[in-house]
Amino acid sequence: MSEFYKEINPAGFGIAIKQKEVLFSKQSDFQKVEIIDSDSELGKILTLDGLMMTTEGDEYYYHEMISHIPMMHHKNPETVLVIGGGDGGTVREVLKHSSVKKVVLCEIDGMVIEVCKKYLPTISCGLSDPRVEILVEDAIEYIKDKKNEFDIILIDSTDPMGPGEGLFTEEFYTNVKNSLKQGGIMAAQSESPVVNKNEIKKMYALLKKVFPVCAAYTSPIPTYPGGYWAWAFCSVDVKPLSYYAEDRASEIIKSCKIYNKDYHNARFALPNYLIELVEG
Amino acid sequence: MSEFYKEINPAGFGIAIKQKEVLFSKQSDFQKVEIIDSDSELGKILTLDGLMMTTEGDEYYYHEMISHIPMMHHKNPETVLVIGGGDGGTVREVLKHSSVKKVVLCEIDGMVIEVCKKYLPTISCGLSDPRVEILVEDAIEYIKDKKNEFDIILIDSTDPMGPGEGLFTEEFYTNVKNSLKQGGIMAAQSESPVVNKNEIKKMYALLKKVFPVCAAYTSPIPTYPGGYWAWAFCSVDVKPLSYYAEDRASEIIKSCKIYNKDYHNARFALPNYLIELVEG
Description:
The structure is a homodimer of 280-residue chains. In chain A, helix 6 packs across helix 7. Chain A has 2 domains: 4-53, Spermidine synthase, tetramerisation domain (Spermidine Synthase, Chain: A, domain 2, Roll); 59-279, Vaccinia Virus protein VP39 (Rossmann fold, 3-Layer(aba) Sandwich), CATH 3.40.50. In chain A, strand 4 (44-48) and strand 5 form a beta hairpin. In chain A, strands 8-7-6-9-10-12-11 form a 7-stranded mixed beta sheet, with helices on both faces. Chain A has 10 helices and 12 strands. Chain A is α/β, with parallel strands linked by helices and 280 residues long. Strand 2 (13-27) of chain A pairs antiparallel with strand 2 of chain B.
């Protein structure tokens, strides 16, 4: 094993992490699943098909952003669907909202869930909560016949190539929209503004065909390509920053490393070049 | 030469960049100065003592933030002092403000200036502007006898170890404060919130002893440690977001890749853990 785990993005640069050992490595029905123990403050790392999905050391940058930004825009989120997200980090954050009665995790790859339960307990801990229903199945099929079922849908997927590809289509987004209740919000990971400019342009063009409200928000993520990440905020009837759930905020903020109300409001202020990509 | 230029931070991870060749490498009186041509979208890279200072591909993330955030808080910035910043990127941005009559660049290492003029012309281009006075000297000595001379002082230094160490002391900050005019603002690079937590805590504790107003602002920088960077905003009499120079904004924003008014306002919203570090 080499001294460093390296992940180089198409722009020709990337991350290098001192590594100790590979704790798990197996091909599932969908992808290569690995857990690497790093010799760094990042701790253990989950990779899928050789791309970092999450690390113990910086996972909160991603999970607090994909969950609390849309959740705080909803007056009473009771039913939440998480698509992908088999590591459990997004579910853990969603469960911090006292209004939540049911979280459905729809993850296509059962091996990801099992491996994260075993090796990444601080991330996967929410998966055993009684409010959580875990479905090991294809979200593209699952969502097809759902109408008015969810207050919040979080698309915590891999990139738009490989197993996650079908989660970046007009048909899929339309089905997601139809499965949202009134006042419902979808948030979806939407790649790196630094190294995935073409993917972002394409994705937001599609989203805007489907959703009357479509905005981007961003935050730094140290281990993701370019150190900077975007999420799409989409809805039929809820505009960004039109509502803030003060009642739930104070308790949740106490338990977060990043998230607070000012930080929340600031997420929708984008760099010029990203405004251009999103507006198309 | 190995295939990758690597820079690993004390937290055990860092950046790896495909490299083509080392275009320049020489020990100056102060540090090792190198220009590396990368095989990536980052283009050419300046390193000092083996640490990346700037790249052609992502320099604007840093230079737009260190300059326009403080400059837009000033009603009429005419005289600006840039300490360090020998690559010229900060000077280039400062010169976009039509109010500016004089920029003093005080850089201790003349080799940095010469090398950047030769190899990084898109960054150093402002250095030949007639409003710019270049002083190759130690800013610690230069600032000692200056009183009420500058509207804006930008500390575009290296890290608090090596040649830049003396730029992180109470005595130096006090001299900076005394050299500011009424309504003056200092902005200083203040390391990575991800991997320099101790340095940030120490630096802001010092700054708060000197300046009545002291705040942090942050922005992503793809190639800096942790992909996330902080700057200190310090003044005797100007609070963050208390004034915005609308008159200069529209022209400047047109020429920026990142900077705009919403992005400006959002910079002062910090993650919880950074609020703790800064408030001490």
